[in-house]
Amino acid sequence: MLIPVQHENMSARRWPIITLALILVNLLIFASTHRTVDQQDSQLWKVKEHILILAATHPNLVLAPKAKEYVDGFQNQFPDDWAQLQNPNSEITDEWDARTRLIEDPEELQGEMDSIASQYSQLMASSITERYAFSPSQRSPITYLSSTFLHADWWHVIGNMWFLWLAGFVLEDAWGRPLYLLVYLAAGAFACQFDAWANPESIIPSVGASGAIAGLMGAFMVRFPKMKIRMMWFFDLGLFPFCRFWMRAYWLLPIWVLMEINYGTGPRDGIGHWAHVGGFLFGGIAAVALRYSGLEQKMNKAIEEKVAWTPDPEISRAGDLMEHGKFDEATATLNNYLTTKPDSVEAWSLLRTVHWQRSDVAAYRGVTVMLCGLHLQAKENETAWKDYEEFLQLGGNNMPPDIWFDLCHVPEERQDFERAVSEYGKLAAAYPSVRQSVLAQLSAARLCLKRLSRPQDALTFYEAAAASAVPHLDLERDIESGNREAQIAISQSEAFFTAAASLK
Hints:
Layout (H helix, E strand, L loop, with lengths): L1 E6 L9 H41 L7 H13 L1 H8 L8 H6 L5 H21 L1 H5 L10 H4 L7 H22 L1 H22 L11 H14 L4 E7 L7 E7 H16 L8 H21 L1 H13 L5 H11 L3 H14 L4 H13 L3 H17 L3 H13 L7 H13 L3 H14 L4 H16 L4 H13 L8 H28 L1
Antiparallel strand pairs: 1-2, 2-3
């Protein structure tokens, strides 16, 4: 199973109010209706089943218009199932079926059919699914909208909302809130219509926001084709049942829609594959239209005007002083500002520029360390790593241990495990008397053992952690467990090579 985890741009200029509102509305509607829907659907299906059985086994009975419409639709869509229902020797489904098989009087059978048809009409009138889900053979205008806010179960709604979040908030940021909402709702409606074109006689009601979300995915591919999406692949093999990798949108999303087309042309599985295809096509076309019509540019300009950042007067004054070559005064102004606002990335960035203009490399490196820490706090890991690389290029050696330890996670997230082990090792060697050194040794040991198949190096790191003078009682269990696992791996490796040598 493949699941998207994140993409490169997990930030926006404004709060994604529409995306959050759509998620909240979907969750609230499902939470408030799913028990009622389950109960209604169970009752309605039982009545539908009785109508089908009676109509199949006694074709001369007169059906009410709604009941006849359902029976005709079922007969056309599921001819094999209909033939099985017509078999008088088919398995008895329930007590009602057993009782009606004993009735031979035509009038009594007609009365039974009339009673069931009446129940069917009453349940249809009150059923949330029948009134608000989209059915290609019995379309009503409201269902083009309402069906996108109904879901079958918790997994259905949670999965859809996760995809909505990933694709939605960046498009809302790019297009603006009104335009984004319009495309979302229109994609959902078009997905329903596309499904109706593909299965015009279908009597199965469809629910879910996946058609509208597929529209966002199509727009995402057009608007951000080169953006990398991080995928998690779950599989039932070995000790590590998943792996993670990055894939660009222009590869991933077309593969997904081709899979949907393939599933749509195969046996029906209860999933609206053609609705997904229709939504995806609509979203892609809408994104192209918005770009070339100029609407996207106009909305983007309006957003920029609303969110444009205006620096504090002290930062503006420091910038003016720097432009006029008054570096000492600019430095003093910024240092004074930072005593009250030490987390200001703008002030630190400008101060770093001032030091660069003054050719003060040591001061530049010091400010780079501060910016690296602030970027890590803001979860801007890639920017922090660029700060670190610049720090090294300018002759820097050791970062503060807390910042350095967090930085070591960046190459690990990139799956550059060799670099991660190297950084953990340098941290442990540079700061042997701080807790981060023990944590770094454990992290390096874990990567050597689990990712790089280097159990001997892992054992070395575990032994170094165990021998550390830094108090680490809370980590003893992890160290002992890892030590044993590394020794077992070494023994297995030696046994393998011994056996291989004997075969030669």
